[in-house]
TrEMBL record:
Gene Ontology, cellular component aspect: plasma membrane
Membrane topology field: Multi-pass membrane protein
Source organism: Halobacillus yeomjeoni
Subcellular locations according to the entry: Cell membrane
Subcellular location, principal: membrane
Keywords of the record: Cell membrane, Membrane, Transmembrane, Transmembrane helix, Transport
The protein's name: ABC transporter permease
GO terms, biological process: transmembrane transport
Family: Belongs to the binding-protein-dependent transport system permease family.
Pfam families reported for this sequence: BPD_transp_1 (PF00528)
TM helices/strands, residue ranges: 60-80, 92-113, 119-138, 159-182, 215-234
ABC transmembrane type-1 domain sequence ranges: 53-233
């Protein structure tokens, strides 16, 4: 309860500051919380904002799942094969240093408007943080654990599921958190540049026509949806996998 109380106080503090600042401007330049709240109700009744939200979430989930699966498979393979890890490391270093949004214009030209370039941006944005953490997790597995499992007859996919995966979960979850945050920001930015729908497009379109109330509504939704996905998806995912990894590691 104390934690929620502190969080509520922080939100209340921001609303008070926001209200105070908004009184210094005309409502069409910098609207206050009440104006944005009314705009949210209006957009919800029109049914447009739901479509933008659902489309952005669909793109995010699709791209993130593809990215996570690829990162786990490639990261485990790099942990098993020294040659493959040495081959992969300079490529990871290069692409990790490249901002995901740098790819957006090229992806839009090659793949066109729509879901494909947006999903591709998400994959690029989230793949490398997850991959790096999976590779680090593989490096931290004690060789004695692997040898013990092999002595008991574990090999192939059994070794991957019952030894590698439980051991790398803590490191991988950290990568998932980082990758999720980067991919969400990158998706919104990509939608602003070349999207034809989605939260980013909603903000960019309303910015072009000078509707600052809807722009602020979109900005608030970005943060709110990130918090919602953290509590509804990421934290339960971590708890579930942490318990599974603990049970598996303990036999």
């Amino acid at each position: 309860m104390r934690k929620w109380g502190i969080g509520f106080t922080a939100v209340l503090f921001v609303l008070i500051i926001w209200t105070g600042v908004s009184t210094q401007f005309a409502s069409y330049i910098f609207p206050g919380p009440i104006d944005v709240f009314h705009e949210g109700i209006k957009q919800w009744e029109k049914g447009e904002i739901q479509n933008h939200i659902l489309l952005s979430l669909k793109r995010l989930v699709t791209g993130f799942l593809i990215s996570a699966i690829l990162a786990f498979l490639i990261g485990i393979l790099a942990g098993v094969s020294r040659w493959f890890k040495d081959f992969l490391t300079p490529l990871v270093t290069y692409f990790q240093a490249t901002p995901p949004m740098a790819w957006a214009p090229l992806l839009i030209i090659v793949l066109g408007l729509g879901d494909a370039p947006m999903i591709a941006v998400i994959i690029i944005a989230s793949f490398f943080p997850i991959l790096i953490n999976v590779m680090q997790g593989m490096d931290m597995i004690p060789s004695s654990h692997i040898q013990a499992a092999k002595t008991l007859g574990a090999k192939g996919w059994k070794l991957g599921i019952f030894v590698y995966l439980p051991e790398i979960i803590p490191a991988a979850i950290s990568g998932i958190y980082v990758g999720f945050a980067i991919s969400w920001r990158s998706l919104v930015a990509a939608e602003m540049i070349g999207g034809n729908a989605g939260i980013g497009y909603f903000i960019a379109f309303n910015g072009q026509i000078g509707n600052t109330t809807s722009v602020l509504l979109g900005i608030i939704l970005i943060g709110f949806l990130a918090l919602l996905m953290d509590y509804v998806f990421l934290k339960p995912l971590y708890n579930r996998f942490a318990k599974w990894a603990s049970r598996t590691a303990n036999g």
